[in-house]
Amino acid sequence: TKRRRSRSASPASLSPPSTHKLAFSATASTAGPSPAFQQPTQLISFSYTPEREFEFTDSALRYLVQPPRNAQLAHAYDRWERRPERRSRIDGLLRALSAARAKRHPALASGVGVVAWRGVMTRILTSPYEEREGWDLNVMCVDGVLYFEEHLSDARLREKNDIEPRHRLQTYFGYAFESYCTSHTPGGANVPQNPGDPPGWGGDVDTNVQWCSVVRTKLGDTRMIIGGEVDCVREKYTGATDTFVELKTSLVIRGPHDEVKFEKKLLKFYMQSFLLGVPEILVGFRTPAGQVSTTQVFKTVEIPRLVRGKPHAWDPTTCLRWGNAFLGFLQAQLKGQPERDVWRVRFTPGMGVELRLLDAAEVDDVVAGEERVGFL
Ligand code: A3P
Ligand code: MG
Ligand code: MG
């Protein structure tokens, strides 16, 4: 904060903020091969404890188990330890990256181009097909490396914390499904802890607890460090991404309209898992009241084929082309700019992105009231 404040007095910040645009139209028609995407390899993993303490352990790692038939996802809703919605900071990821660097991880021998949480990269890459939700990012370019952080406005943050009870329950359904589908020990069956717990309940939901994997991968010519939460592993933890499993819930498909909705949603499921190298997604199809009626395993690599040729189809190569153009655009704009500058990228659905330099007051807002490790 101190360093940034001192920069705000420098003459450069007195010049008007510059704005640069990248429209979808500039990249959409570019046919030709898709930029290559390298299979992600894990650099390091870490956990958040129930006290929300960061630790370099696998204490929060969980193993896949078969959920019981007709699992009730509203179970123990009143016992949910809910982590308040916060601005998701890059600090934990930077700590993990520093630790990997200190251990001289061989995968870090060559230069890195981008550091970001998986959620941010998913938003960027799926934006060609996003029809409703815009997003904002904060970006810094330090030593040629782009660091991304999601930016939630105060209003958006309040909205997320004041969601309707019905929506909050639906969110809980996703976490309750994780409880039924996972166990603390490999091959272990879940033994309920409380007298009222149903068979197979894996313990009350605490959304402070997370197990995260940090991977290295490459899109086109840009090496990327991506961190993200992994729901569980199948049977054993190998230290690689090959046993990772993503868990999802979705409404039971009752007709063609639901099917279209689900197949559109598959883009997010796909990209989220693809970026971290997660090979399998287990979907629990639930009733509106939260009873799981069926489960289905999707192999991540096979998902694009399921939608190909349909009127509502999406194409991952469009996403990768856009992502590659987006990164190239930022690299070109930010190269040679002062390293302490913080930039804001705004995505508008159907249009593209706009990049502008934040002024000193806005940068102070970005860091306000937070203990930061900092970008370096
Ligand atoms: P479902 O996806 O099963 O509904 P993730 O699937 O990424 O592991 O996230 C676990 C759960 O967190 C989700 O379960 C959902 O309930 C909630 N969640 C994740 N991202 C969300 C978002 N952007 N908005 C609301 N809830 C979200
Ligand atoms: Mg998850
Ligand atoms: Mg999940």
Automatic annotation (TrEMBL):
<dbReference type="GO" id="GO:0005634">
    <property type="term" value="C:nucleus"/>
</dbReference>
<dbReference type="GO" id="GO:0000166">
    <property type="term" value="F:nucleotide binding"/>
</dbReference>
<dbReference type="GO" id="GO:0046872">
    <property type="term" value="F:metal ion binding"/>
</dbReference>
<comment type="similarity">
    <text>Belongs to the DXO/Dom3Z family.</text>
</comment>
<feature type="domain" description="RAI1-like">
    <location>
        <begin position="38"/>
        <end position="376"/>
    </location>
</feature>
<protein>
    <recommendedName>
        <fullName>Decapping nuclease</fullName>
        <ecNumber>3.6.1.-</ecNumber>
    </recommendedName>
</protein>
<dbReference type="InterPro" id="IPR013961">
    <property type="entry name" value="RAI1"/>
</dbReference>
<dbReference type="GO" id="GO:0110155">
    <property type="term" value="P:NAD-cap decapping"/>
</dbReference>
<dbReference type="GO" id="GO:0004518">
    <property type="term" value="F:nuclease activity"/>
</dbReference>
<keyword id="KW-0694">RNA-binding</keyword>
<dbReference type="Pfam" id="PF08652">
    <property type="entry name" value="RAI1"/>
</dbReference>
<feature type="region of interest" description="Disordered">
    <location>
        <begin position="1"/>
        <end position="37"/>
    </location>
</feature>
<keyword id="KW-0547">Nucleotide-binding</keyword>
<dbReference type="GO" id="GO:0000956">
    <property type="term" value="P:nuclear-transcribed mRNA catabolic process"/>
</dbReference>
<dbReference type="InterPro" id="IPR039039">
    <property type="entry name" value="RAI1-like_fam"/>
</dbReference>
<feature type="compositionally biased region" description="Low complexity">
    <location>
        <begin position="8"/>
        <end position="37"/>
    </location>
</feature>
<dbReference type="GO" id="GO:0034353">
    <property type="term" value="F:mRNA 5'-diphosphatase activity"/>
</dbReference>
<keyword id="KW-0540">Nuclease</keyword>
<keyword id="KW-0539">Nucleus</keyword>
<comment type="function">
    <text>Decapping enzyme for NAD-capped RNAs: specifically hydrolyzes the nicotinamide adenine dinucleotide (NAD) cap from a subset of RNAs by removing the entire NAD moiety from the 5'-end of an NAD-capped RNA.</text>
</comment>
<keyword id="KW-0479">Metal-binding</keyword>
<dbReference type="GO" id="GO:0003723">
    <property type="term" value="F:RNA binding"/>
</dbReference>
<keyword id="KW-0378">Hydrolase</keyword>
<dbReference type="GO" id="GO:0005829">
    <property type="term" value="C:cytosol"/>
</dbReference>
